Amino acid sequence: MPSTPSAHPSSSLEVSSWDDLAALPARMGELAEQADAIVRHARAWVCRRVGFEPSPVCVLRPLAAAMDPLETAFVELGRRLDDQWRDLTDGVRAAAADLAAADTATAHDLAGLAGLADLAASGAA
Prior knowledge:
Layout: H1 24-46, H2 64-124
């Protein structure tokens, strides 16, 4: 059976080389926007009391009261997700900066070693 295309882009993150780290925070931002859209949708459409209160004799009417705590739960979920995702994104940015600094330092050290090898080779000749 063929799969149905999703309305949202893939929710996976893939880093196939260190060079991809620079784009990772932007991709993580896209995923955070998707999560925010889910929370906003749930608050706007799932947590609505109006569907359970069409008449005083509606058998589903007691469920209307459950929508308020459900909305509160989605608000808290969105807040926690924002906080944790921000911390994770900050950590990824810091790790990428540390890797770039280590790469630069290593390249400098290797260039220095190459210079010493050239100097040693020219002195031995």
